[in-house]
Amino acid sequence: MTAHTEQLEFQAETRQLLDLMVHSIYTNKDSFLRELISNASDALDKLRLESYQDKDLNVDVSDLHIEIDIDKAARTLTIRDNGIGMSRDEVVDLIGTLAKSGTAEVRRKLKEAKDAAASEELIGQFGIGFYSTFMVADKVTLLTRRAGEDHATRWESTGEGTYTLEHVNEAPQGSSVTLHLMPEDSENGLHDYTSEWKIKELVKKYSDFIAWPIRMDVARTSTPAEGEEPEVTIETETINSMKALWTRSKDEVSEDEYKEFYKHVSHAWDEPLEVIPMKAEGTFEYQALLFIPSTAPFDLFMRERKAGIHLYVKRVFIMDDCEELVPDYLRFVKGVVDAQDLSLNVSREILQQDRQIAAIRRRLTKKVLSTIKDMKANEPEKYSTFWTEFGRALKEGLMADADNRKTLLDISSFASTNSEEGVTTLAEYVERMKDGQEQIYFMTGESRHLIESSPHMEAFKAKGLEVLVLTDPVDEMWVDAVSDFDGKTFQSIAKGEVDLDTEDEKKAAEAEREEKEKEFGELLTWLTETLSDDIKETRLSTRLTTSAACIVGDAFSMSPTLEKMYKASGQPVPHSKRILELNPEHPLVSGLREAQAANDNAENLTETAQLLYGMALLAEGGELSDPAHFTRLLADRLARTV
Q1: Where is this region: B (predicted)?
Q2: Among positive and negative, which fits the CA dihedral 585, 589, 593, 594?
């Protein structure tokens, strides 16, 4: 029956992960069964889909199901399905190694988890459900044959660093996972998994909604007549209800059922922050059950991430990561969409052009955004959790989704100088605007501290004007795509000219400004020529109160932070010259004007100009083109003062 057997080692990271899981203490070791049943359900879904798509695939799909088999004498528990199965290579890729990004991340999180409950949640979140079997078993055997193949593969391991692979000539299609159970240990949460009632309890709790029948042989004891022995018979019983939650109205589904279904479709262990059931009739008929998670997945900003929406057609599974159903900025949304009129042979390429999918996508997007808007209006604590976890992703929609931009602006929140810890909506910002203020002021940067200590902020602090503090990388992008909110334009305080004086103040100071322009005209010209490699203009500033100088860009120029982002990603960025603004009231600037007018020591003046520019560049968080030259000039200048 069997042939060649080979022993292999786990991938190094997988071996360390197994060690962490086996030797960590979890409060709920029951989770292993939910993970194995979920994997079996996925295998059945995939077989039915492949049988539709490949008419030459010789498989029987008339009785797809999951079996649970208990052997009390041998203390084994087997979960078996007649689904798609796995080839030998797939076993090595999916079981022998963790074939997905995030392996190192889950190891780090497991080590950092402060309590057992936190560790337990990581099992589903990182898609490592199969490995949870080693919490309850000291040996695991997998026998699997892929649909359409003649031979099978037996995988076996004790979870201690190695596993064996065996070629098997005869085996049923699908997969069976046999757990050689550890002894019962109630103190450590290790229950008797050879108990029928315990298995039925766990299936009811975690997997009742699975669309495929979960069967188990159960013992029935008859009530004997007087003087007779009770008769025990074995019957096969379906122990789950198989009710698709998305086909039921919200008042028919309990909160616990929604929670478990969310965990099933998302492979996560957090609880949903919001449940969104939908039903559409008419031109395009579909049902949907969507969830907003309460915790951001670890791969939310990874390139290899997968979408979270499962697509069904008339309850037939089509795909589990349908990117076409929601825009990328809503990729954190999980759930199921069941369309009525799509072809069962639909492909990703067809979906991209399908008119019905496009209509469903528009409706799902509007429904999710309106749900977030209601959450913001009526459940501020829940909204705060949402924004903390997913706000950065949602703001991507401000660039990509012009149709829903107004709604996105309404439901977005931002840090501002109005509060050191809280966030503000744009509507709240507008309500607090000063009389006559027509712009929503903002500044982007790498950190709040860097922005608040920037010279650009000085005049705004002095006049009590609120400034949005934008520190997410995406903020650098959307501020250029969005022109206004509620008729108020967005204005970067680090770009263009800033004039914060009222008309009366401008008239009163007009003569003084003209006098300053004449007084500093020669210095401005000289600085522009001296620093011509770095700046295109020098002018007097109205935004500085305490700093000597700052550097500003044109209204539509690229910010320094955005330049850094492009350079970090390997994209060439052309050198753009910006504008040096001087504070005419600062002693350094007035002293430089006097020295330049007297034509004292041209070399010394040039060095001072370079130091002035370098200080302004560093103050805004910029990078010096020649740090060694700057520090040498500064050291020489300091040495003369000692």
Answers
A1: 349-564
A2: positive
Q: Which DSSP category does 182 fall into?
A: P
pTM check: above 0.90:
no
CA separation for the pair 178, 142 (Å, rounded): 6
127 is in an annotated binding site: yes
Contacts of 348 (CB under 8 A, 6+ apart): 319, 323, 324
Among 30, 10, 11, 14, which Cα is nearest to 107's? Answer: 14
Burial class of residue 219, CB neighbours in 10 A (0-12, 13-18, 19+): exposed
- Nearest-angstrom CA–CA distance, 119 and 113: 5
Q: How far is CA 274 from the centre of its chain?
A: 17
Sign of dihedral through CA atoms 445, 451, 453, 457?
positive
* Among the listed residues 450, 449, 581, the one whose alpha carbon sits nearest the alpha carbon of residue 516: 581
Residue 524 φ/ψ, nearest 5 degrees: -60, -40
Was 418 annotated as part of a binding site? Answer: no
**Residue matched to tokens 């209204």:** 555
**Residue 625 φ/ψ, nearest 5 degrees:** -70, -30
Per DSSP, 95 falls in state: I
81 is in an annotated binding site: yes
570 is in an annotated binding site: no
* CA angle, residues 548, 554, 558, in degrees to nearest 5: 100
Q: State both tokens at 568.
A: 């970090």
Q: What are the tokens at 587?
A: 């002693």
Contact 401, 327 (CB under 8 A): yes
Let me know if 121 is exposed, middle or buried by CB neighbors in 10 A (0-12, 13-18, 19+).
buried
- Which of 113-122, 278-287, 407-416 is predicted with the least confidence, judged by mean pLDDT? 113-122
Provide the pLDDT for residue 208.
83
* Residue 216 labelled as part of a binding site: no
Q: Does 458 carry a binding-site annotation?
A: no
Round to whole Å and give the CA distance between 147 and 50.
9
Which domains can be identified in the chain, with CATH numbers? Answer: 14-223+230-238 (3.30.565.10), 245-390 (3.30.230.80), 412-492 (3.40.50.11260), 505-640 (1.20.120.790)
Tens of pLDDT, residues 319-352 = 878 889 999 999 999 999 998 877 666 677 777 7
- Residue 352, φ and ψ in degrees, nearest 5: -65, -25
102 a known binding residue? Answer: yes
- Please, how many CA atoms are within 13 Å of residue 603, restricted to the half-sphere of its CB? 2
For 149-191, how does the pLDDT look when each residue is reduced to its tens digit (9 = 90+)? Answer: 999 999 999 888 788 999 999 899 999 999 999 999 888 878 9
> What does DSSP say about strands 413-416 and 309-313: parallel, antiparallel, or unpaired?
unpaired
User: Per DSSP, what are the bridge partners of residue 549?
Assistant: 582
Backbone φ and ψ for 92, nearest 5 degrees, come out as -65, -45
CB 63 within 8 A of CB 79: no
- Residue 35 assigned ligand-binding role: yes
Annotated binding residue at 553?
no
Taking the C-alpha atoms of residue 559 and residue 563, their distance in angstroms, rounded to an integer, is 6
Q: Does the annotation place 135 within a ligand binding site?
A: no
Q: Determine whether the annotation assigns residue 198 to a binding site.
A: no
